[in-house]
């Protein structure tokens, strides 16, 4: 029997749904299955529509092959997706964003009502209450749990950096980083924010953190997989990582900036593609974790008076 049944639970909401993984993207589905169980901060789409997603602690999602792509708007509610942004996504209603995605499974029909209820409650948490909702993903019938994978690196100094990044990622995985909490409460040592504004700083922090994980570090992993020569990879790292990380350090993310400085100082010690991918994947997961918390903490209700106006033809 080859069926792979998973349970996605939100213990704080008292909701559990079951889903079956399928063969549309078998490599992605296997990566996901092998990583179970885990827990993660549950997020909700803020632009695309009725869509849940969270960061999955699965390094291979950054580069695993995906043959079958769909327009998320056209597939049934309850479709599960894995993405190169290290997300597990679940559609639970109307989507408006014309984005292709890579499906890996489907929530069982009898659990769709529970999924819709979870979606609405997560939206309320992200948009209004700011109470974190934790998702637990496990193989059906098995106990839950949690672990973050640790990727080794040959060079001792670079390996020490990766150990520190991994430890920090574990520390903040299910608890908000103190630096982001301070920032969202207006405690900004550098006094970033013209005329004492805070919302402007939060907006720019969000705008830099997400692409640092998604595009910079995730993109560098994929470039290494595709065989880009090591000198080019090192140069691209210097070009892509320094400026946004320095700005984020100015805004209060000192830990991220400290890790980035250590990475750039030791980059010439990374001499092969395997170690390079380990370093960049570790940084990607850390940045994606920061991005998830920033999206949760951001005061989205500040824009409640701004509502979409339907166009009249």
Descriptive keywords:
313 residues; alpha+beta; Cyclophilin; 2 domains; nine-stranded antiparallel beta sheet; 8 helices; Cucumopine_C
Structure in words:
- This protein is an alpha+beta fold.
- The protein has two domains: 4-139, Cyclophilin (Beta Barrel); 156-300, no CATH class.
- Helices cover 44% and strands 18% of the residues.
- It has eight helices and eleven strands.
- The chain has helices spanning 26-35, 112-129, 156-172, 178-184, 199-225, 230-251, 254-265, 273-297; strands at 4-10, 15-21, 38-41, 43-44, 49-55, 70-71, 79-82, 87-95, 100-101, 103-107, 134-139.
- The strands form two sheets. It has a nine-stranded antiparallel beta sheet.
- Strand 4 (43-44) and strand 5 form a beta hairpin.
- Helix 5 (199-225) runs antiparallel to helix 6, helix 5 packs antiparallel against helix 8 (273-297) and helix 6 (230-251) packs antiparallel against helix 7 (254-265).
- The longest helix is centred in the C-terminal third of the chain and has 27 residues, at 199-225.
- It is globular and about 55 Å long.
- The N and C termini lie far apart (54 Å).
- Residues 158-297 form the Cucumopine synthase C-terminal helical bundle domain.
- Pfam families: Cucumopine_C.
- This is Cucumopine synthase C-terminal helical bundle domain-containing protein.
C-alpha geometry: globular
Order of strands, main sheet, comes to: 3-11-1-2-10-7-8-5-4
The major β-sheet equals: 9 strands, antiparallel
Average per-residue pLDDT, rounded, comes to: 95
Element-by-element helix/strand order: EEHEEEEEEEEHEHHHHHH
The portion of residues assigned to helices is 40-55%
Number of domains: 2
Distance between the termini: 54 Å
Question: What's the total helix number?
Answer: 8
Structural class: alpha+beta
Count all strands and give the number: 11
Radius of gyration using CA atoms only = 20 Å
Strand content of the residues, in percent?
15-25%
Q: Enumerate the spans where pLDDT stays under 50 for 5 or more consecutive residues.
A: none
